[in-house]
Amino acid sequence: MTELIVIRHGETDWNRQHRFQGQIDVPLNATGLAQAERLAQRLAGERFDVVVASDLQRARATAQAAAGARPIEADPLWREQAFGVAEGLDAPTIAQRHPELWMQWLRHDADYALPGGESVRTFQERVLRGVQRVVQAHAGRCIAVFTHGGVLDMLWRAAQNLPLHGARTCEIPNTGVNRLRWKDGALQIVQWADAAHLDGLPTQPDTTPLSAHSAQPPGAHGAAPVATPAAPLGALMPAAR
Predict the structure, then answer these.
(1) φ/ψ of residue 189, rounded to 5
(2) What's the CA gap between 192 and 6, in Å, rounded?
């Protein structure tokens, strides 16, 4: 059995402004740095053998704060989804500049990609290659992964055998602790969106998609353990393309 502790990066100014970050290298803001410090305190008593992070600085900085003296393996497979022409923009600006593209985006079609970006299906295939890489390289160990909200959405959907079409349905707070398990070729969620260590810090921006703010209310900091069915290996490994 291989354990995964998967954590979204700390807050950035663009999170607060509801701008598409994608693969633009946006730094943590003051709140994000404070969240990373709280996370470091939370993880101080944890045993994890390996630290992996997206190579984007908001994930790497969060990992550096929480990992102590442990080396960090930077891996671009754990990057956020690429949003192409939408990166750096908020929803009203995209709707104004690219109205036809925005209307297509609102359909939440897993095979639609904004110009210069990735479709959700292509994105999930990349994320699952990242999962395969770490569980094969570090089988039987505990791995801490510092990554992005979209990546965690892909893991949630894969572990629960949910479709890729449609808006996000899970809570993904900045520096929330998500515990997963890889056992017998299957991914399971043990605990999701635990952010009790952030009590007293500013309320986080809504974590629902930028196109669907009314679909899900902002969540509280704490989260209970989640028992989910295991996703079989065949469901996690995309067909060759």
Answers:
(1) -95, 125
(2) 9
Q: What is the mean pLDDT of residues 109-125?
A: 98
Per-residue pLDDT tens over the stretch 161-209: 999 999 999 999 999 999 999 988 889 999 999 999 999 999 998 766 5
Superfamily name with CATH number, domain 2-236: Phosphoglycerate mutase-like (3.40.50.1240)
d(Cα 166, Cα 156) in Å, to the nearest integer? 13
The SS3 assignment for 29 reads: coil
Spell out the domain ranges in the chain: 2-236
Considering the candidates 11, 73, 80, 171, report the single residue annotated as catalytic.
Answer: 80
Active-site residue among 9, 87, 118, 197? 9
Is residue 118 annotated as part of the catalytic site, yes or no? Answer: no
- CA-CA distance, 149 to 170, in Å (whole number)? 10
Residue 187: which of 241, 240, 124, 239 has the closest Cα?
A: 124
**Unique residue bearing structure tokens 């036809």:** 100
Overall average pLDDT of the 213-230 stretch: 39
**142-147: strand order across its sheet:** 72-74, 50-53, 142-147, 2-8, 177-183, 186-194
Partners of 7 in the β-ladder? 146, 177
Residues belonging to the chain: 241
Query: What are 223's two structure tokens?
Result: 């989260």
- Shortest CA distance to 62 belongs to which of 124, 166, 145, 3? 145
Entry pTM: 0.88
